[in-house]
Amino acid sequence: MEPSPNAPSSGRKRKNLSSTGLGKSKRLKTEKQEVEAVECERPSSSPKVSVLFDCLKQPITLKELTSLLHYVALGKGGGIKKPSWCGVQQRRRISGVNVVVVEGLTQSHFYKHYVTLKHLRTNYTSRITFMPSSQNIASEVFSSEVPRCEDPSVLQNPALRSHPVIMKFGSERRGLTAYVLTQEDMIKYHYPVKGPHVSFEEFVCTESSDRVTDRSPLFGLDCEMCVTIKGNELTRVSVVDADGTCVLDELVKPANRIINYCTRYSGITAAMLRPVTTTLRNVQHKLKALLPRDAVLVGHSLNSDLVALKLIHRHVIDTSLLYRREFGQRFKLKVLAQVVLKKHIQTKKMLGHDSIEDAAAALEVAQYFINTGPRQVVERHLEQLWGEEITDTPTRQPQSLRFADVLQTRQQSVAYFGKRCEVALELSNQQWHNSDKEVLASFRKTTHNPFLSVLRFSSFSDHIQQCDAPQEQLHHRMCADLGQMCVVFAGPFPEGFSETEVKRLFLSCGPVRKIKMLKRTVRLHAQVEFQLLEGAVLALKTLDGLILHGQVLKVQRPVNSSVLDLDLTLDALMDDALSSRSIYAVRSKHRVAVGGNASAKVNGHTPGVGVPGALSKKTTNGLPPSGGNVTTVRLSKEEAIRETFGQLGAVERISLLAKPSTHAWIKFKSCDDKPTALAEDHRIGHYNICPCLTPPHLRSWTASAETTAAAEEHDSENNINHQGQEMELMMRKLDRYLGKLFRSVPDCTLLVVLFPGYNGCQEQLPGLCFLEVKSGSGEEQ
Predict the structure, then answer these.
(1) What's the whole-model pTM score?
(2) Would you call 25 exposed, middle or buried from its count of C-beta atoms within 10 A (0-12, 13-18, 19+)?
(3) Which of 39, 210, 323, 682 has a 20 to 30 Å separation from 533 between CA atoms?
C-alpha cells in the first residue's frame, strides 16, 4: 500500500480505560478472521463500492461524495456519470443509501481512538480522507443538483424523462439480469422468500444457484386457483420454455374442500378435478426436477402463483412490474399481449383462462421488453399503454434538479434525522431530536427504511465547543501523540558518529522525518522520528542489538502516556481491512562509515562481506545502472521486487515510495500469502519486511513540525486526562450506535459514515469518509 503524498496526516492509538491490556490483546487477535471475511469472502454477486487506489492520493470533496450518491441512486440511465474516484460493482442491486454525519470529528479522532472504534475499522472496507466543507453537509446531500441528462431523446421528451419505466430501468437496453427482482423488491411485492417469515415456513425452495447471468434460461409460469375452506388453493399449473413450448401442465387436487371453482376465471370445473390425484407436493417435486439451477421464472403478478404453489424461487421477472405505471398501478396481461404482441388472450369465447396461453404470453412480453430496451418500448407504446404523446420540440428541464426532489419524483422516499437545523427538505420528511440516542432510536423504529436517509450526530460537536481548548489545539495535541508512535531512541553510538550516518543507518527501516542528536549524556544517543509507523517497528525488530565498533546498539520506544497502549493499536492495525493482503518492504542498506576508514559490523558481520543487502557502488539497489533513464530504473525495481515476493504468492500491486524508492508496499492477490511472507522472520532476500500499518490514504503518521510543536502548554495534566476520558467514553458510545445502525439497515444498502473535519478561519483539519455496502446473507440476486 502506498500512502498518499498529498493527503493531510493523522493517525493514532487509544488509551486503556476500563479493561486490562491482556484481555484486549486477546480480543484484537480474534478480529483477523472478521476482517478477512470482509475482504476475501464477500460474495462476488454482492454490490460493492471501493475507492480506486490511485485516487487515495487526494482527499475527496463534498461534491465528489454527492456525485457518488447520485450515481448509486440514479445510474447512467438517469444521466449520471460514474464517479472517477471510486469503483461501483452491481450498482443496480444497491437498494438504499444511508449517510451518517458525525459532526465535530476529524481524521485524527479516528486514529487516536482507533482500537475503541472496532465497528468502523472492521466493517468498513473503504476509507478516504475528506476535505472539510463550510456547507451544511446534511442539507447539501439533499439539495445537491443532479446533472442534466445528456441523452437527447430523453431530454427532448418530458414524457420519457419522467416516465416510470425510464426512471426505474434507465434508457439503455440491458440483459435479463437487469430486470430480475432483487431480494428487497421481492419482499416489497410480497413474494415468498427465505428467512424468518412465519407465513412461508412450510414453503419448498427450488435448488436455484446464487446468481444468474444474461444467458440463463427463461421459463413462463402461470397458475389457476380455486377457493377452498382454507382460502385460495392451486388447481392447475403450466410452464413453458423460452421457445413457448409447454413443458409442464398439471391439474392439481386441492387438499381441502372446494367451495368455489372460480370457473369464470380459472376454467376449472368439478368434472375436470374429479379424477385428478396429483397433489401440491407432487407438483413441487416436478418443478424442482424440471427447473435448472439458474432458471429465471417469468410471470404476470407471479407472487400469487408462487404463493399458491408454496414455492420459493430466487430469480423471477414480473411483467406487471416491467411495464410500470404511476402510483403502483399495473396493466393486465391481456392488455399487454394485445398492445405489445398484437395477440388476443382471455377472450370472452373461452371458458376461463388458459394457463398455458397466459404463461406463454407473459414470457413473450418479457422477452420483447428485454430485447427491445426500456426506451424503445416506451416510445413505441407510449400513447397506447400510457395515454401520452411524444413531442419532438425541445422542452424545459424539470423545475427542480435537487437530489431529494428527483428521488421523490421516482417514488423513492427521503428522510432527515437529527438536531433541528436548516435542511433543504420538506418538514414532513424531517425528524428532529436533541440527542444521538434519540436520533438512532427514531431511525430504527421507522417501519419502512427511506431510500435516502441522512442522520446527524451532533453530541461531539457540542462537547468540543464546551472544551476550554479550541479545536485546533485539541487536534495538535492528538497529532503530537500520533507522532510519538513513530519515534525511537537509539544508542549508544560510537564517538564521532554524525547525524548523517545515523540517518543512513535508519533509512534501512523506512523514510526518516527528523533526527535529533542527544549529547547531554555520557554517551552519544539519538532520537529518530520516522514518517511511517512501519519504520519504527522495523527499527525495533532489525536494529536493536546491532553491533557498531564492538558496542551494542539499543533501540527502544519512548516511555510516556501516549504509547502505553501502542501494542494494542499495532495488533489492530495489522488486521486492518485496508491492509489485510499487504506488507511493507525496504531494501537493507547497512553501509556505515565511522571516522573515514573505520568499519561497522551489522549483527556480527561486516557490510559488503557476505551480508545480504551489501551493495556495490556500481549498482542501483542491486541492479545494473539504467543509464539515466528514470522510468527504466523504476520499472526494474518493481520487477526485482515482484521476482523476490512472487515466489510466495501472486502479487497484485507494487507501490514504491517516491523518495527513497527503496521502500515499497506489496499487495498480494490472496489473503493467505501475507502470513507466508511474514513467516520469514522479518526478512526476505535483501528486504526487511513487516505488516502494513499505514492506511493508504495517509501521507504519514507524523504531523508537520509546526503541528507537533503546538503541544498542550496551557492545559493542566488533570484537565487533559479528564477531557480524554470523556472523549473515550463518547467514542465507545458512538461505535455502539454505528454498529446498531449497521445491523438495522436492509441488506444491499450503501452506508456512508462521515467525520467532516474542521474548517476553521486559519486552519483546515481533514475529515474521514467510510464507505461500505452491507452484504446480504446470500439471498440477493
Answers:
(1) 0.59
(2) middle
(3) 39
Closest CA to 101 of 723, 766, 738: 738
Query: In the β-sheet with 512-518, what is the strand arrangement from edge to edge?
Result: 512-518, 524-530, 487-493, 554-556
| Angle (deg, nearest 10), helices 302-309 and 280-290 | 120
Radius of gyration of the chain (CA): 33
Q: CA 670, CA 677: separation in Å to the nearest integer?
A: 12
Q: Indicate whether 41 pLDDT > 80.
A: no
CATH class of 21-148+403-467+726-773: alpha beta
Task: Report the chain's mean pLDDT, rounded to a whole number.
Answer: 78
List, in sequence order, every residue forming a beta bridge with 236; answer none if it has no partner: 224, 251
Residues in the chain: 781
User: Which three cell numbers, joined as nine digits, stand for 756?
Assistant: 467532516
Residue 430, SS3 per DSSP: strand
Q: 106: which DSSP letter?
A: -
d(CA 744, CA 72): 20
pLDDT in tens, 137-174: 888 899 888 876 545 555 456 667 678 898 888 888 88
Q: Of all helices (H) and strands (E), which one includes residue 476? A: helix 471-484
Q: Which residues contact 693 (CB under 8 A, 6 or more apart)?
A: 532, 533, 534, 537, 570, 573, 574, 579, 584
In the prediction, which pLDDT does 362 show? 96
pLDDT digits (tens, 9 = 90+) for 507-556: 888 888 889 988 777 888 999 998 888 888 888 888 888 888 888 999 99
Please say whether the structural domain 174-372 has been given the CATH code 3.30.420.10: yes
Range 213-224 burial, b when 16+ CB lie within 10 A, else e? eeebebbbbbbb
CB 264 within 8 A of CB 225: no
Q: What is the 3-state secondary structure (H, E, C) of 302-346?
A: HHHHHHHHCEECCCEEEHHHHCCCHHHCCCCHHHHHHHHHCCCCC
Task: State what percent of residues in the chain have pLDDT above 90.
Answer: 28
* Domain boundaries, given as residue ranges, for the chain: 21-148+403-467+726-773, 174-372, 487-530+533-693
- Answer yes or no: are the C-beta atoms of 419 and 456 closer than 8 Å: yes
Distance, CA of 481 to chain centre: 30
Instruction: Compute φ and ψ for 716, nearest 5 degrees.
Output: -75, 160
Taking domain 487-530+533-693, whether its CATH number is 3.30.70.330 is answered by yes
Q: Collapsing DSSP states into helix, strand and coil, what is residue 290?
A: helix
Q: Report which of residues 504 and 615 the model is more confident about.
A: 504
The SS3 assignment for 5 reads coil
Q: Give the largest Cα separation in the chain, rounded.
A: 112
Contact 72, 88 (CB under 8 A): yes
Comparing 744 with 461, the larger pLDDT belongs to 744
pLDDT at 412 over 50: yes
For the cut 70, the answer to whether the pLDDT of residue 752 exceeds it is: yes
Residue 535, all three cell numbers: 519504520
